[in-house]
């Protein structure tokens, strides 16, 4: 997927980069030549993934334990990355959570705050810390969800946070352009670790009515991520791009 895209010498940070879509993007960025920072709450896993990336690709990779929902912790992570590499060229705000609840009435304040903290506050804090330090041509890539435009009662808090992330994308693009670009991948259903919860026979049957008729493979996020991370998207900013097998194209 990285053919024709050369990110040699760049430093790319991926939050939630140790598994699922984040892991696919971390590996793809390294394959394209970027030095990669794998960040998530589990520092041990991040270190292990970073070691594997370096062994497989030869690029420098760093594992950083960081809880993006914690304001001061995010700042510490940025300081650690800049101390190690001296620059950040690409930031992919991928970390996210979608906790469930029995009903809207039973959702707790703690659950609400945690969902907003990780999905919205974290990307805001990271972006506003990193963007002023980015060199010319820097790129911020947010990972949103089609829930942001197709909310359900069962994921309303998550959907509201991701909707806020879509808006944040447009505001960051205005605030830090033309030096830094900011775009969003609005992800549809992908077969990651959490897909077991919803990827039922009933869902597969319903998905046959979608334009591409299926859920996405994790590696199918890579092309869009590399496009936004690279100079191929040099005239694209403030964009929210669905990568969802055509789900949001349906009326």
From TrEMBL:
Any one Gene Ontology MF annotation carried by this entry is: oxidoreductase activity
Keyword Plastid part of the UniProt annotation: no
Q: This protein is called what?
A: SDR family NAD(P)-dependent oxidoreductase
Q: Where is the Ketoreductase domain?
A: 10-194
Q: What is its EC number?
A: 1.1.1.-
Give the protein family: Belongs to the short-chain dehydrogenases/reductases (SDR) family.
Q: What class of enzyme is it?
A: oxidoreductase
- Report whether Transport shows up as a keyword of the record: no
